[in-house]
Amino acid sequence: MTSDTPHSQPVPAASGAPAPAAREGAGQPLVQLKDVNKHFGDLHVLRNINLEVRKGEVVVVIGPSGSGKSTLCRAINRLETIDDGEILIDGTRLPSEGKQLARLRADVGMVFQSFNLFAHKSILENVTLGPVKVKGTKPAAAKELAMSLLKRVGVDNQAGKLPAQLSGGQQQRVAIARALAMKPKVMLFDEPTSALDPEMINEVLDTMVGLAKEGMTMIVVTHEMGFARKAADRVIFMADGQIVEQATPEEFFTNPKSERARDFLGKILNH
Amino acid sequence: MDLLSEYFQSYLTALETYDVVAALWVNIQLTFWAFLCALALGTVLALMRISPVPSFQWAGAAYVNIFRNTPLTIIMTFCILVLVFQLQLNLSDDFDFNFFLWAIVGLSVYHAAFFCEAIRSGVNTVPLGQAEAARAIGLSFLPAARYVVLPQAFRGAIAPMGNTLIALAKNTTVATVASVPEAAGLMKTMIEFRPDVIMAIFATFALGFVVIVIPIGLLTTWLSKKLAVAR
Ligand SMILES: Nc1ncnc2c1ncn2[C@@H]1O[C@H](COP(=O)(O)OP(=O)(O)O)[C@@H](O)[C@H]1O
Ligand SMILES: [Mg+2]
User: Which of A98, A103, A164 sits opposite B138 (nearest CB)?
Assistant: First the structure.
């Protein structure tokens, strides 16, 4: 392991960060991870993770491939079980299985690298399915909500099409709308632009910046430094399943403290 | 020439004595009802096998392994000799209809194992991300299966389900064990009493099944293309 000790104290919200405006109710912890450990067989993927994300905060998670960023996101949404430690969403501990878990999961929106839109359903149905089947929203109201969200992400004119008929950037924006339709308390993004052609990356990032500006609590795994600088309050650097360093974007990108982070930034900047 | 028309005449009298079409119609009915029951049971079994509950997975796997590996004739004989004659389990007061129903039961429990596996192969065509996205919006196992995974799995399983349906249609001849008046039983009777036209009798029944089965093949090929999920 590196000599860097993982931080367990949350770093205060970036006072110098440019974008995030004053946020209502900011300050209360919305997502809390306490001493979280996770193994895949012999592989220790999450090592004693302690993390607090406050309401309205935007946290960017960065780090080399295989460092456990996806597993972290998936654990927060309980798509992966954890071995020990605890994860709380808005003060409530994630239950292990069953209906209650399903309900809590709806509080945590998730956007995947590969979009994962329901391939057999229209764009509109992709967005209305959750509200109708999970929340029991009336179809007409769900449709209205879905259309307004699709409009917000700029794909309302594609509502009747199937996912395969849309570009990657459009599909990812629909995926964001689908997650928003559940009115989540926090949104997780796992490399949302990594599978996109370069010309489509910005349309998705712009949507995410917009969300951040509106005060959505977000945890975003991404190597897009532009996004981190524009929208993030805090950058978390992960390596080998540990949180190695956390700082404001400005501080992290200009003056990384750990050797691992310097090394990693050197590699992605030289591209 | 004379010989040929004489043979044909004998064949016609055989057809007049025995109602081949009515017998084949019984096979079609058996196919239809056993298909519906086996498909329903197979879907439940597939759900058990993909469920997160280990005991369900185990029970589903055990069912499939038992029924897939037991000859249909033995299942059918068991239904009739043990369940009906020994244990007097009657599904209907009508003697013939009781056997007809038991034949459907035997065909269904056997083919359900195959439909289960066909559906499971369809589930494998659905990317894991689909189920994860469903869970991520808060759907629990059953709704996620019902609205997201199974609709795509069925579309991906049409070809293997078609093959199972074809096997089922042909296997309805085993219902003869349950003394259901279906085609194979009739054929045996006809051969016994009209060995003079044995070749024509074989050809008739073979053709009858070809006529039943070919549309199933055509329909499933067409459907699997039409309903393929674009990814
Ligand atoms: N389902 C799994 N089974 C076994 N190993 C896994 C699984 N998912 C991820 N891993 C391993 O865990 C480590 C962390 O993976 P991941 O969280 O995807 O990293 P990142 O997203 O940072 O690239 C990697 O070494 C990966 O190979
Ligand atoms: Mg990853």
Answer: A103
